[in-house]
């Protein structure tokens, strides 16, 4: 097998979605040479408008759940002409524009996936591509996202109609006049149910567990202003969960009303213990009778679906909005395995046994936007690869990983989509603190004014 040598200090970035783009920007800032690979024909990950078979894509009518201002890089705001909740085409245009804004377009190889990543000679990584080529890199950043492998339920019985996972949902038009069952009450399930109900004969939404539904606007304010991030940070950072949970739940009820409005089931957890559902349309669709609610599916029987309360529905199509497994199929499980969406990494970024293997974007967060979190992770990675940040010793990292997994078990609902959950504002603060600690470990803030200035800029 022929191996193509790269420059000694070239870094491989896997994935050009929001996490990979944030990583590319921070590596470029720090003067770290890199190449980014993505199977799609352009940037954006799930927001890439060109559909690639087998890859997850946002459907054209999808809107961003994060309000404008919360899904952008810190020095590159979305255009003010965008609506408060931008459309899929606007999100993809913004992410495409990042390539030229930061002058990094030539660092990407499109239509090229990564088949295998394994330790190579001289402490480098051997990366095998879908082209059959193998290259050596000094470090690897895994940013392939966590919306790649659909998680499908295993209900008893057989269904005679059509089925699909939300991964392949593209348009409501094919459901016109049909009886549709949507399974799952997350952001995808709520938005797809509302979308399909505009054309379907009947739309049924099966909900396994109640949750908190946030509208786009509340009390005359955009929802992120009615429920500000700083409040969540203060409560979660300084109060124990038995106090923070009821306090946040009471505040949520004050701002947006009862979570059982429109007939939705009562949550069995406090606000902040699971990812809330952000939807502008679902409660109104339920009130209008366009979406009918049912509990979890109990059994499939031909065109009939039985639910756990004994009720039945005749349906033509089922859309499973049941989440994804976090997977890294190019890594051997002995190197890294996110078993059942658990992420055993220091700060969700660093591997204690492989310090040149990094991860960006392996998280779910209660908060208003993911891109600032990816940016915080990417700053740590860039500082580490440029020598401005030094990791603690492996034993301390393993201890911190154990503490993080325990915190997830204590603070969040035990389900696959919550096993890599965190509070976004608290996590960003932790990343800033750790960046300063790592700089002190490196001695950068004591001996080199130039590096100290760069660190101060990174820690903004």
Q: Could you characterize the architecture of this molecule?
A:
By secondary structure, the protein is an alpha/beta fold. 30% of the residues lie in helices and 20% in strands. The chain has a five-stranded parallel sheet, with helices on one face. Strands 11-22-12-13-18 form a five-stranded parallel sheet, covered by helices on one side. A four-stranded mixed sheet has the order 1-7-6-5, with no helix packed on it. Helix 1 packs parallel to helix 8 and helix 8 runs parallel beside helix 10. The longest helix is centred in the C-terminal third of the chain and has 19 residues.
Q: Summed up, what is this model?
A:
Helices cover 30% and strands 20% of the residues.
List keywords for this structure.
five-stranded parallel β-sheet; alpha/beta; single chain; disordered C terminus; 12 helices
Distance between the termini: 45 Å
The percent of residues in helical segments reads: 25-40%
Uncertain spans:
451-460
Number of helices: 12
How is the biggest beta sheet arranged? 5 strands, parallel
Strand order of the largest sheet: 4-3-2-8-24
Q: What fraction of the residues are assigned to beta strands by DSSP?
A: 15-25%
- Quickly give the structural class: alpha/beta
Oligomer: single chain
Number of strands: 26
Global shape: globular
